[in-house]
Amino acid sequence: MGHKLKVGELREMYLTDEEIWRIFTIILSNKSVKSSTYKYALIKALIENLYQINEDFELTYDQLAYSFTKIYWNLVVHHNLLNQNSGQTARVVSIIKEGQLKSGIPSEMVFDKLDEAIQIKLVGKVKSTMKINVFGALYGDTRGSFYAFDHKKETLRLNPSVHSFMLNYQRLLVNLTNYHMAAMVEQLNEVPSINYLLGKVESIAKRSSLKPFEKVLLTYFKAECFYCGKKLTDNKRETHVDHFIPWSFVQSDHIWNLVLACNTCNSSKSDKLPTRNYLDYIIDRNQVLNDVKENTSITILMNNYRSEKIIMLYDYSIKNGFDSVWIP
Questions:
Q1: How far apart are CA 69 and CA 44, in angstroms?
Q2: Among 43, 67, 91, 311, which is most buried by a count of CB atoms within 10 Å?
Q3: What CA–CA distance (Å, rounded) separates 299 from 212?
Q4: pLDDT over 70 for what percent of the chain?
Q5: Does the residue 112 lie in any domain?
Q6: Which UniProt keywords apply (predicted)?
Q7: Using CA atoms, how far apart are residues 110 and 240, in angstroms rounded to an integer?
Q8: What pLDDT sits at residue 1?
Q9: What is the number of domains present in the chain?
Q10: Whole domain around residue 32: which residue ranges?
């Protein structure tokens, strides 16, 4: 496992912007395993120190740990957001709370204004935790292509291509990282003042029910699963309507991207793309709907559909990190 590594070599020196975006997309999406907010905090620490690297594109662990500690000081001390981990209390949270209580530091105190000796002690403890749980974890998610690291030398060396990319897209990366980190903090902390606003914003485009589409599809197609072909009339097999290309990518409900599915396939497929041969199946299926002329509501639902459009969406979803192909 990546987080157990003590040394990580840089596996690729040159990456295109498209390749880097694809990796970032995976890191920030649910394709990456995240049991804590640590990975987001490290990305934020890297961005904060982009202008502090030496001529070899190196940053010290102390530089990164200082930014990392400051991030969690703000979350834990200022905002009392103590849950930063899906399991037991994150070690960084414990370090900061213990340091605050031991020194009697008020919650309104800014980290930069703390006594230097307290700062050094906190940063040192956080750095030790980062060695165990942070540097290797993000290294593994980027497949060793973003940076190299060495626990003995206590240095992290950024890939020059990644450094240039992060400089060019710094503001956008900050906003993206802040959003995903905030969404996870919301999920982990039951704080009334947060009110789960991010989740509400994200779900605006999603319909409350796909039942109307189910009725239309059952009118023109057999009651069988689009993926496995099993009949949907069995009482034990519920009828579901599935987004062929995941909703989390298309963010809309169009009949040409919706198929009838059994409970088993719908649950198993989840947020994945079906293997590419199903693309031909849905194109043929949509041609049937396109040929329906007597029903104006179908014509409206298929308005602006082209087979090239769903092929383009399929290909772009892969580029955006939906590369875990699903087979029933």
A1: 11
A2: 43
A3: 15
A4: 91
A5: yes
A6: Endonuclease, Hydrolase, Nuclease
A7: 52
A8: 47
A9: 2
A10: 2-201
